[in-house]
Amino acid sequence: MNNINIQFGPLMLFLIMLVLVVSTFGFVIRKLLGVERKKWFSYNHLNERHKKLDWSVRIIFTILVLISSYYMIYNDPVSIPLYFKTWFILIVFFITSEMLRAFMEWKYAENKKDFVATIAEMMFMISIVFLTITTDFFGLFNI
Prior knowledge:
- The protein is mostly helical.
- The chain has one domain.
- It contains 5 helices and 2 strands.
- The chain has a two-stranded antiparallel sheet with strand order 1-2.
- It is flat.
């Protein structure tokens, strides 16, 4: 088993700071573009087609996460390919879901700048996640 020293206090502070940075970026980009703010964790679909496609993506990725979890439990973690790792599937889900949203906003939204804000927020989140992973949470984990 890995001996990972996780400092809970700094980790929680770091996660709170990440949420604040991401929220601030979303607020600023939407203000600059004159776009209405999206609610977190809401199902604000643009139309019935978007709703059906979004739920299809969610169901497919839920099944993939369950399969991935089973595979990771019953196999050697070192030999598991990247595309079977749960964190990778969740990142691909986030990107797929946001790209679907951006496409539907581009195609059907009244304010055509909605999709630009969605893509900008997604790219910012991907950058933050990549930076966080590559720096081991900015040194909060002593491995």
